[in-house]
Amino acid sequence: MRGFALLLFAVAAWAQTAHQQHHPPQSAAGYVKHLESPERAAWQKPHEVVTALALRPDEVVADIGAGPGYFTRRIARHVAKVYAVDIDAELLTKAKDSSPGNVETIHATPDDPKLPAASVDTIFICDVLHHIENRPAYYAKLAAALKPGGRIVNIDFFKKKLPIGPPVGMKLTEQQVTDELAAAGFHKTAKHDFLPYQYFLEFRTK
Questions:
Q1: pTM for this structure?
Q2: Across the strands, what pairs with 109?
């Protein structure tokens, strides 16, 4: 059981840091340091990403794989509430500590975001989807958490060799994500092309 718990921790940490390097650091502090590295902003463009989301002041957002709150705290400045969702309790504590008071953390499991039903306007996923197993079942749980008219936003690495990010074999293509979400009842409503290493897609229910 202990070995399984350690494996889950490793998977969670890798899911949060794969975009930084092929060989992630070996401590929680190291993971946070790499996630929060100033160099990340040059290619992740967090201000531009949040601006492109066109968030409303009354909006509720779920940040799936929130880690220490890189996007959570930025999004929280523009909306009514953010659910910071992660399977690592230590990272969630850091997300809470670094964010405004309108952030609620959810200690999820690898197969369940544990979001309240019909509670979220936007589900935001960055560099995490390719680590989720049995995505069709996971999509169904995300759909149940969305309010009517809600959206799923996914940012992930292009499936090709890049100077950052996980190995090519771990990645999902833009078309694969689009097809999977179509099968789950979503259609692509927007695509943003300003990120150098990632696709940035928005989906809503059909």
A1: 0.86
A2: 112
Sign of the CA dihedral 2, 106, 185, 178? Answer: negative
Residues 6+ apart with CB under 8 A from 39: none
Reduce the DSSP state of residue 105 to 3 states and report it: strand
What domains can be seen in the chain, in order of their start residue? 2-205 (3.40.50.150)
Name residue 43's amino acid.
W
Tens digits of per-residue pLDDT, 81-107?
999 999 999 999 999 999 999 999 999
**Tens digits of residue pLDDT in 19-76:** 333 334 445 566 676 677 888 999 999 999 999 999 999 999 999 999 999 999 999 9
